[in-house]
Amino acid sequence: MESKSQTSEVFSLGDIPGEYFSRQDESPDGDFYRVPRLVAHIDDPAISSLGEFFRPYIPIDADVLDLMSAYLSHIPPDIRAACHRVAGLGLSGAEMAANTQLTEHVVQSLNENPVLPYPEGTFDTVLCTVSVQYLLRPADVFAEVRRVLRPGGSFLVAFSNRCFPTKATRLWLSTDDSQHAALVQLCFEESGGWEQIKTHDLSPHPGRTDPLYAVSARKPQE
Ligand SMILES: C[S@@+](CC[C@H](N)C(=O)[O-])C[C@H]1O[C@@H](n2cnc3c(N)ncnc32)[C@H](O)[C@@H]1O
Q1: By the 8 A CB rule, do 42 and 100 touch?
Q2: Strands 149-159 and 195-201, how do they pair?
Q3: How far is Cα 90 from Cα 70, in angstroms, rounded to an integer?
Q4: Ligand 1 centroid to 52 CA: how many Å?
Q5: Domain count, the chain
Q6: 33 vs 17, 88, 104, 136, CA distance in Å?
Q7: CA of 211 to the centre of ligand 1 (A)
Q8: What residue's CA is closest to ligand 1, atom 4?
Q9: Strand 195-201 versus strand 2-4 pairing type
Q10: What are the residues whose beta carbons fall under 8 Å from the beta carbon of 204, sequence distance 6 or more?
Q11: How many whole angstroms from its chain centre is CA 199?
């Protein structure tokens, strides 16, 4: 699947009733991540596929932000070795401290504060892997990602069919893979100022290993 977005002609995030952006577990998100999980959240074939997908979007000497980061950032080792900076932002300081690909990390709940703690135009590439389903105000976060990207930089949002169901939005739990892609495309469209919004099916062995999809978009050159 690789498609241009047509979702804005169908509906907007504002048409979705507010209860769909609620979760079974509404306790503070930090509580859920208090005990570190030093694990991979997708299987090895999906991780390899994701790394190859990242490759052309991370230039040499790149400054990268891994948003909703944890123990693994999934950047191919040779690409990581050529990066200048890989910043992590997530909820578990212990998981990010154990992530050998990060140069630094910040603990922040994007559901409490979607404003990213970086100046405008800081990063070449922003990654968000298997986590977008936990955002209560995704368009606000996408707008912030656009602000902190340099012109021409990319935001890569990848997701599978696995999640922590008590923390995912009711909207995510009530929709399927292709609707998830449409929703992420809508977040790009409604946060505004993106080009080349594309959906990618990265599933390495459909039906046998974890499915994997991504939506990519670019901040236009000035
Ligand atoms: C399934 S893990 C994925 C972690 C990592 N991106 C990966 O690919 O392995 C979900 C991550 O989302 C982050 N997260 C969940 N809710 C968040 C929030 N409200 N603000 C910031 N990060 C959040 C957590 O830190 C958690 O590690």
Answers
A1: no
A2: unpaired
A3: 6
A4: 21
A5: 1
A6: 28, 15, 19, 17
A7: 19
A8: 70
A9: antiparallel
A10: 45, 46, 48, 49, 212
A11: 13
CATH number at residue 16: 3.40.50.150
Q: Which residues line ligand 1 (CB under 6 A)?
A: 29, 33, 41, 68-70, 72, 90-92, 95, 109-111, 129-131, 134
Task: Give per-residue pLDDT as tens, 13-68.
Answer: 888 888 999 999 999 999 998 888 888 889 999 999 999 999 999 999 999 999 99
Nearby residues of 17 by Cβ (< 8 Å), 6 or more positions away: none
pTM value is: 0.95
Domain that holds residue 31: 2-218
C-alpha of residue 48 to centroid of ligand 1, in Å:
20
Residues 6+ apart with CB under 8 A from 81: none
